Amino acid sequence: MQFSEVIGQKELKAKLVKMIEANRLSHALLFLEKEGAGGLALARAFAQYIVCENVNKQNTGDSLFGDSLPVLQPEDSCGKCASCIKAAAMIHPDIHFSFPVIPKKSDRPSVSADFMAEFRQYMLANPYSNEYNWLQFINAENKQGNITSRECEEIIRIMGLKSFESEYKILIMWMPEALGNEGNKLLKLIEEPPPNTLFIFVARSEELIIPTILSRVQLVKVPPLEREEIKNALIKRENATEQQATEISGIAGGNYFEALQLFNHVEENHIGQLKVWLNSILKTGNLSQVKVIDELAKMGRERQKQFLRYFIHLIEHAIRMRALGMEAVADSGNAELNDFAAKFNKFATIEQQEAITNELDKSIYYIERNANAKILFHALTIRLYHIFTHKVVILVN
Q1: Which of 81, 141, 232, 288 is most solvent-facing, going by the fewest CB within 10 Å?
Q2: Distance in angstroms (rounded) separating the CA atoms of residues 249 and 259
């Protein structure tokens, strides 16, 4: 994967190239991202850049981590040399991957190599995916993905070997949050690595990484994507229409994976579902609520998040309409959305809309952490009922 295939992140790409130009690259980097910002894609592109034969022709021959004078580097890997072709196909012998897996056999913990064929197949098709969908791809169901003690031992063994083709050995660890205390086995390797060894950790939660590893890495923050970047990517890569791309990029919240999920379910009638749900809260009563909750609980985690994010998008649209007027926001091209937002403004004050948005955000957070869907939507329905009918703003720490 080349930098040009990574959506947006122009400043960060330039920063990574500058690190190499100035020979100021740390032996261990942590790409910290929000979901869908492209951290893993960026790590793959950076690894390909480092092993690219034409990029390395520009080097002085000094170590990537040395103190020699800066050398002007190309902005991207060539994509044509043997190293680039192998790196793009995720088969370069000096670029290794570590990621959460489940046991393949009950009598021994699995390592990433046991699932490398599946991981390669999945990530080449879904470079902006998340760990939940990856684990579902390997039929994890409700099993937790882990990076095991045996995996750490395998990393120590592999990274202690000489490189095969490139001057550098690279390990990309996706989701180091899946490391428990067994990750301490890697400390000496990270602190005193063999020459020309690079570790790239790609994570979403700084708090879930064990502190001993966190203290030994250089932090590189990967910002969420801009709306325009997501919009342009959807039009160019997915042949989305201008209207589809505009609406989806507004909902996705800087998350290209979420944008793809929304695009793949673009025919789903979220507004229709919202109307039924809100009617059950405000008019039709308990029996209708139970039926709606059952339907929402069956949708699956990603679709539940999409549904709630769409509700947040609708509220944001309603607030803009309230502040700027119908004409100022009607250029979305979606008459149904405009009509719904206008009606929503009639029975919900801006304070209530803010309270509802907070409740929806918290529900998305709990869905991501495998909350029981039926209980979650039942509780959310009760909270929305009180916000709407009793003008009560419920805030829970």
Answers
A1: 141
A2: 6
Q: Which of 253, 324, 205, 191 is nearest to 36 (CA)?
A: 253
* DSSP reduced 3-state for 37: coil
Q: Do β-strands 95-98 and 28-33 pair in parallel, antiparallel, or remain unpaired?
A: unpaired
User: Cα–Cα distance between 298 and 287 in angstroms, integer?
Assistant: 17
**pTM value surpassing 0.90:** no
Q: Regarding beta strands 197-203 and 169-174, do their DSSP bridges make them parallel or antiparallel, or are they unpaired?
A: parallel
Q: Domain for residue 350, yes or no?
A: yes
Q: How many domains does the chain have?
A: 2
CA distance 204 to 130: 10
Residue-number span of the structural domain to which 180 is assigned? 3-223
Amino acid, single-letter form, for residue 137: F
Q: Is residue 163 packed enough to be buried (19+ CB in 10 Å), middle (13-18) or exposed (0-12)? A: middle
Q: Is residue 396 part of a domain?
A: no
Give residue 171's identity as a one-letter amino acid code.
L
Give the C-alpha separation, 182 to 285, whole Å: 51
pLDDT of residue 266: 60
In a domain, 212, yes or no: yes
- State the 10-residue block means of pLDDT for the chain, 397 residues long: 91 89 83 91 93 75 52 79 93 94 80 92 91 86 83 91 87 90 87 89 89 89 92 90 82 84 70 83 79 85 82 82 66 66 81 88 85 89 84 47
Residues 283, 362, single domain; the answer is yes
Nearest to 340 by CA among 360, 318, 356, 323: 318
Smallest CA-to-CA distance from 123 within 230, 303, 257 is with 257
Instruction: Identify the bridge partners of residue 201 per DSSP, sorted by sequence position.
Output: 30, 173
Residue pair 340/314 in contact (Cβ under 8 Å)? The answer is yes
| H-state helical runs in 144-223 | 149-159, 187-191, 211-214
